[in-house]
Design goal:
This protein is rod-shaped. 22% of the residues are buried. The protein has two domains: 111 residues, Double Stranded RNA Binding Domain, CATH 3.30.160.100; 65 residues, OB fold (Dihydrolipoamide Acetyltransferase, E2P). Helix 1 runs parallel beside helix 2. The protein contains two helices and nine strands; from the N terminus they run βαβββαβββββ.
Length: 189
């Protein structure tokens, strides 16, 4: 990953194994490519209980539009504490990474919905005057079904080849993709 990730330890002397594990977790963030601008990992062991330290792990990852934060704590150094510490460190990274994934997934879905359901130019390719429905050929090659119910205008004035503005609907009809709104484009005089 190209983004700078600062690693700092407070009141805690890390082993080589811990440094290596932190680097492995940072390397796993490569799947976000350019999404992470910068980051910081802080391991702090200010709380002591006997021979063990309760270590807090804070992972902060800055991305365009926000800051993802993962916080966990674990005991160090006894054998069960080591597992507890490793799990806490992994979970702190995963919490922050999940926040970034959710942000971009929501943003992608919103952008995709906005693009899919915007008014577009199309051309009437077929009309069925008896049941007052038809199909519109869209620029991307998709044929949208429409009926008189979604038409803003007079169905009897439509003709094949006429240009219209159509908004694709989210749900499909029994005939496939359908329009939620159709508006004829008046010829220029």
């Amino acid at each position: 990953m190209d983004a700078p990730i600062e690693i700092s330890f407070h009141h805690f002397e890390p082993t080589d194994r811990i440094r290596d594990r932190i680097q492995e977790l940072i390397d796993e963030l490569d799947k976000f490519e350019d999404a992470i601008i910068s980051g910081r990992v802080v391991v702090d062991a200010t709380n002591k209980h006997g021979h063990k330290s309760v270590v807090s792990i804070n992972v902060e990852l800055k991305y365009p539009g926000g800051l993802a934060v993962g916080k966990r704590s674990g005991e160090f150094p006894n054998p069960t504490g080591q597992r507890d510490f490793d799990t806490a460190m992994t979970e702190a990274f995963h919490v922050a990474a999940s926040q970034i994934k959710n942000h971009f997934r929501k943003r992608h879905v919103q952008e995709h919905k906005q693009l899919d359901h915007q008014p577009q130019h199309g051309r009437i390719e077929r009309l069925n005057q008896s049941v007052k429905n038809g199909f519109i050929q869209m620029p991307d090659g998709v044929s949208l079904f429409f009926s008189e119910a979604v038409l803003q205008g007079d169905f009897d004035s439509l003709s094949e080849g006429q240009e219209v503005i159509a908004v694709p609907a989210e749900a499909e009809s029994p005939y496939g993709p359908q329009a939620s709104t159709v508006k004829p484009i008046a010829p220029m005089a």
